[in-house]
Amino acid sequence: MNQPAEKRLEWKDYQDIFLTPKRIASGQRFKRSWKQELDAIDRKSLSCFGICYCIDTRR
């Protein structure tokens, strides 16, 4: 990869590639499976760092 990309893509150009119904459903299953762990991380990161660690599975 010695040559630069011919064109620079923006998020809107990638969105349809990466945000497919199958990937969204997979992310929602992941979030449900790991809910307790993710909630614990969210509470800890919010109390320690003031950061809300959340995974948005909406589209």
Keywords:
mainly alpha; 59 residues; single chain; Transglycosylase SLT domain-containing protein; SLT_2
Tell me what you see in this structure.
- By secondary structure, this protein is mostly helical.
- It has a domain at about 20-50.
- Helix content is about 60%, strand content about 0%.
- The protein is flat, with a radius of gyration of 17 Å.
- The model has no long low-confidence stretch (mean pLDDT about 80).
- This is Transglycosylase SLT domain-containing protein.
- It comes from invertebrate metagenome.
Radius of gyration, in Å, reads 17 Å
Secondary-structure element string = HHH
Largest sheet descriptor: none
> What ranges have pLDDT less than 50 throughout 5 or more consecutive residues?
none
How are the secondary structure elements laid out?
Blueprint: H1 11-18, H2 21-33, H3 35-49
Please summarize what this structure is.
This protein is mainly alpha-helical and about 60 residues long. Helices cover about 60% and strands about 0% of the residues. The radius of gyration is 17 Å and the shape is flat.
